[in-house]
Design a protein that fits this description.
alpha/beta; globular
Length: 134
């Protein structure tokens, strides 16, 4: 027996009308919050990002890259731990931003995150800046 359309789980937020219409950013959670700083949409990441928490980051990155020409800064200065689950979400969001004519940059002054980007081969894709540009 096949499931009825009404029984299916809705798709990710990027497929909803409110996300594509430029709705408000998702509600802050213990791992991410989004705010606007001048021309930038800043996604501030907090605590530990791993397989269990990457989804909380994902909803903020999806919303930040939903509109045309996004200029997104992902602030990782308050991250205690970041693994490949978080890297996967950053790569996905970067691809979305580029497809829409925008960009995604990382803000980090943490040597451990720089080592992770280098070891994963992503340092050229995501050369971190030390602070949020003026």
């Amino acid at each position: 027996m096949t499931p009825e359309a009404k029984d299916r789980t809705p798709g990710p937020p990027e497929h909803t009308a409110s996300a594509s219409a430029g709705a408000l950013p998702p509600t802050a959670n213990p791992y991410a919050r989004t705010y606007v700083n001048g021309p930038f949409t800043v996604v501030e990441v907090l605590g530990e990002i791993d397989m269990a928490t990457a989804g909380f980051l994902c909803e903020h990155l999806d919303a930040a890259t939903a509109r045309p020409g996004p200029d997104v800064l992902v602030d990782l200065r308050h991250v205690d731990f970041f693994d490949c689950s978080g890297l996967r979400e950053l790569c996905r969001a970067d691809s979305r931003a580029r497809e829409r004519g925008g960009r995604l940059r990382l803000v980090s002054n943490t040597p451990s995150l720089h080592r992770l980007l280098y070891a994963s081969g992503l340092l050229r894709r995501f050369p971190p800046v030390a602070r949020i540009p003026e």
